[in-house]
């Protein structure tokens, strides 16, 4: 279930490329992208090309990063998020299925429903916004390859960031 009250299933997006982004608003590695406006830019660019972008908040109630629907809607508005929806996964069901380890942990699912990329958002495991300069963004590279009908060159990397708070 998402912050907008709707229920989403990956199967409803068959034939579309989907990005899954694990999110914790309190995580400095997540803030690196959002405070700089970069995640919102990536979301808007991808969704503008027909990609479905699902942000997943998997922090359990009582743990750092937990949000309910109202709090998440406010975060989405305040941050100017350009994602398709934010899934509320406080039970960790989605995170456990994907073995999401960190925020952000990124997954790109191709049009056939297969994971084409999983791992870090970029090659700079730092919480500093300065590390964005010159960083290789693995997610955008994967999306560009899929858009051209090419295999994803780097299909897996080690995710970095704050641990998912089960």
SSE pattern, N- to C-terminal? EHHEHEHEEEHE
Q: For the largest beta sheet, what order do the strands appear in spatially?
A: 3-2-1-5-6
Show unreliable segments. Answer: none
- Proportion of beta-strand residues: 15-25%
Helix content: 25-40%
What's the β-strand tally? 7
> What is the count of helical runs?
5
Radius of gyration, taken over Cα atoms and rounded to an integer in Å:
14 Å
Shape: globular
By secondary-structure content and strand pairing, the structural class works out as: alpha/beta
Spatial separation of the terminal alpha carbons: 17 Å
Quick check: average pLDDT? 96
User: Which assembly state applies to the chains in this document?
Assistant: single chain
Taking the sheet with the most strands, its summary is: 5 strands, mixed
